[in-house]
Specification:
Number of strands: 2
Structural class: mainly alpha
Strand content: 5-15%
Distance between the termini: 78 Å
């Protein structure tokens, strides 16, 4: 078998430094830091959905009214959906919202949880 005549470079590739958190990720981290203390002050400590197999604890888990990839800034688009339109959800309920519900069902469930919260 004949070897290739091309030689490999001995120089190392220059790589730029990776930035694992983008602009939208930083916006979500900042929003979460504002939202969680507000929910705790209102007495919302656990999951607001209570679906079957709910674990009850919502250790910082927040479910959006719309998928995060659909969120845009309200000022730019005039969209009524904001990054802070969220409800607390345990891991099991959050997974059910994301994977087993359509966009409309998910929006109705989160908005229903927010409406029930206002009665407290």
């Amino acid at each position: 078998m004949k070897r290739s005549y091309l030689k490999r470079s001995t120089r190392r590739m220059k790589r730029s430094r990776l930035n694992p958190i983008g602009k939208r990720g930083r916006a979500w981290i900042a929003a979460r830091e504002r939202i969680i203390p507000l929910l705790l002050a209102r007495g919302i400590f656990g999951c607001e959905f209570r679906y079957f197999n709910c674990s009850g604890d919502a250790r910082g888990g927040l479910a959006h009214a719309v998928k995060r990839r659909k969120l845009r800034s309200c000022a730019a688009t005039g969209s009524p959906w904001h990054i802070e339109t969220v409800a607390r959800a345990c891991r099991n309920c959050h997974r059910r919202l994301d994977e087993q519900m359509s966009h409309d069902e998910m929006r109705e469930a989160v908005m229903g949880a927010i409406e029930n919260r206002e009665d407290r």
